[in-house]
Amino acid sequence: MVGDEDGVVVVPAGRLEEAAAIAGRILSAEQEIARQIRAGRDIGEILRCDEVLARKAKGVFVPQLRAVERDK
């Protein structure tokens, strides 16, 4: 069991090394994002928000919106 200010997670003992490796990759990615922001890059550009929004525009991903789209 591991916790911090963001929450708590329970990791089975047999998957601890795998979870630690994933957490390390996430931390590295977050540190790189922070470095790029400090260097003046726009977070939307870093996270490629335009690409994500374009993909989501092709398919409705919220069930409530599917119902609204169907009724148009």
Summarize the structure.
The chain has 72 residues and is mainly alpha-helical.
What attributes characterize this protein structure?
single chain; 72 residues; mainly alpha; two-stranded antiparallel sheet; 64% helix; 8% strand; flat
Query: Could you spell the SSE succession in H and E letters?
Result: EEHHHH
Average the pLDDT over all residues and give the rounded result: 84
Shape: flat
Helix content: 55-70%
Q: C-alpha Rg, in Å?
A: 18 Å
| Number of helices in the DSSP assignment | 4
How many strands? 2
Strands across the major sheet, in which order? 1-2
Low-pLDDT regions: none
Task: Report the major sheet.
Answer: 2 strands, antiparallel
Calculate the terminal CA-CA distance, rounded to whole Å: 48 Å
| Structural class designation | mainly alpha
Strand content: 5-15%
